[in-house]
């Protein structure tokens, strides 16, 4: 079944500025953008920050609601929300993963995982592989 009938056009509506280095990843927050809840997403960057963006329902414009910084010493390469949208995990090249929670309207780092020795990888050949970092003697 072909869902594309040629009657659609992608049109840029806003350029979001704030990060001072390349943006590596973004993640849409679950359970937003429906039932009157404005859409929200997180972006992470080489500038060592994570930004939380929210769409203003009255103007439809996107605004940076919060900048999560001073946690990382290197590029933040990945961000992902928990299925409930209550927690946000962000991972950096400095070998740390931070867990963030929205507490009273502000995001707080509630946990930092350091030197995780496990890595999950995926590729176009199908399987997901779990790797463990082992010290060489």
Q: Can you characterise this structure?
A:
With 137 residues, this protein is an all-beta fold. The chain has no helices and ten strands. It has strands at 23-28, 40-45, 50-55, 62-68, 76-81, 87-92, 96-103, 106-114, 118-122, 128-132. The strands form three sheets. A four-stranded antiparallel beta sheet has the order 1-2-3-4, with no helix packed on it. It has a four-stranded antiparallel beta sheet with strand order 5-6-7-8, with no helix packed on it. It has a two-stranded antiparallel sheet with strand order 9-10. A hairpin with a 3-residue loop joins strand 6 and strand 7 (96-103). The chain is globular and about 50 Å long. The mean pLDDT is 87.
Question: Brief description of this entry?
Answer:
With 137 residues, this protein is mainly β. The chain has no helices and 10 strands.
Q: State mean pLDDT (0 to 100 scale).
A: 87
Low-confidence stretches: none
- Total beta strand runs: 10
Beta content: over 45%
SSE topology string? EEEEEEEEEE
User: Can you count the helices?
Assistant: 0
Multimeric state: single chain
Kindly report how far apart the N and C termini lie. 57 Å
Shape: globular
- Binned, the helix content reads under 10%
User: Taking Cα atoms only, what radius of gyration do you get, to the nearest Å?
Assistant: 18 Å
What are the main properties of this structure?
4-stranded antiparallel sheet, globular, 137 residues
Helix and strand topology:
Blueprint: E1 23-28, E2 40-45, E3 50-55, E4 62-68, E5 76-81, E6 87-92, E7 96-103, E8 106-114, E9 118-122, E10 128-132
Antiparallel strand pairs: 1-2, 2-3, 3-4, 5-6, 6-7, 7-8, 9-10
């Amino acid at each position: 079944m072909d869902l594309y009938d040629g009657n659609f056009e992608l049109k840029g509506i806003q350029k979001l500025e704030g990060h001072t280095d390349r943006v590596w990843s973004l993640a849409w927050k679950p359970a937003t953008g429906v039932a009157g809840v404005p859409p929200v997403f997180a972006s992470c960057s080489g500038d060592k920050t994570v930004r939380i963006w929210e769409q203003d329902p009255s103007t439809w414009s996107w605004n940076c609601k919060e900048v999560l910084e001073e946690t990382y010493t290197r590029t933040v390469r990945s961000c992902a929300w928990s299925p409930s949208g209550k927690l946000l995990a962000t991972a950096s090249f400095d070998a740390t993963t931070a867990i963030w929670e929205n507490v009273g309207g502000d995001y707080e780092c509630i946990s930092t995982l350091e030197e995780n020795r496990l890595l999950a990888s995926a590729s176009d050949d199908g399987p997901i592989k779990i790797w463990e970092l082992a010290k060489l003697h």
